[in-house]
From TrEMBL:
SUPFAM superfamilies: Cytochrome c (SSF46626). PROSITE patterns: CYTC. This is Cytochrome C. It is found in: Periplasm.
Amino acid sequence: MFAFIFSNQILADTPSTHGDSEKGKEIATGVCAGCHNADGNSVIPNNPTLAGQHPEYITKQLMDFKVEGDSPAKRDSQVMVSMVAALSADDMQNIAAYYAQQKITPATTTNSDESLLEVGKRIYDGGNLENNVPACSSCHSPNGAGIPPHYPKLAGQHPAYTISQLDAFYRGGRTNDINHSMQKVVLRMSAQQIKAVAEYIATLH
Ligand code: HEC
Ligand code: HEC
C-alpha cells in the first residue's frame, strides 16, 4: 500500500544498474574488505553484509554518504563518509555490481528465544494494528529479498546492524529514506519490537 503511493515520485532518480564488477572487485577487495569482507559477507556484526544486495540500493547509499560542497552528507557515518570521498559515480556503480553478484552467507542468530522470534515474525509479516505499524513484508517482500530498485534486501543481515539502522531512523540520525518511509514506520515501534524484528530478519533466507 505505501509502496504504491511512493513509487511514482521516486522512480525519477533511480540510479543506473550498469557497473563493471571486475573493476568494482579491485576496490572492494583492496579498500573495503577489512570491514565488509572480500565477498561482502561482513563477519563484524556492526558492519552490514553487502553480498547479494541490490546494486541500485548500494549505489544510492554510497552517493548518500558523499559530501557535496557545503551541505552535509544525506546519510551520516564518519567511517563511510570518509570511505566514499575518493569514489567517483562510476566506481560506486562498479562496486555495487560486484557486491550484488556475491552470494550471501546469512547471519547466524545467537538468539535462542523462540517467543522473541515469533513476535518478530508477526510484525514482519503483518505489522501491528494497535500502533499502526505497517507490515515490513509489504515493502521488503515476504522473504526479505526486497523489491528493487528502492526497497533493500534485509534477509540474513546481522541483527546488530539492523537494530543500529532502525535506531538511527528512530532518533533521526538516518534521514536518507525517501519520503521518510522508514522513519514513519519505526517511530511507532518499541525497542523490544525493533529487537524482535531484527532477530527475525537474520533468520530469513
Ligand atoms: C572501517 C570499516 C569500514 C570500511 C573500511 C568500509 N565500511 Fe562500509 N560500512 C561500515 C559501517 C560501520 C557501516 C554502517 C554505517 C552506518 O551506521 O550507517 C557501513 C555501511 C556501508 C554501506 C551501507 C549498507 C546498507 O545496507 O545500507 C555500504 C554500501 C558500504 N558500507 C560500502 C562500503 C564500501 C564500498 C567500502 C570501500 C570503499 C566500505 N564500505 C568500507 C564500515 C566500513
Ligand atoms: C513503506 C515502505 C516500507 C515499509 C513498510 C518498511 N520499509 Fe524498511 N525501508 C524502506 C525503504 C525505501 C528503505 C531504504 C531507505 C534508503 O534509501 O536509504 C528501507 C530501509 C530499511 C532498512 C535499512 C537497510 C540497510 O541495509 O541499511 C531496514 C533495516 C529496514 N528498512 C527495516 C524495515 C522493517 C523492520 C520494517 C517493518 C517494521 C520496514 N523496514 C518496513 C521502505 C519500507
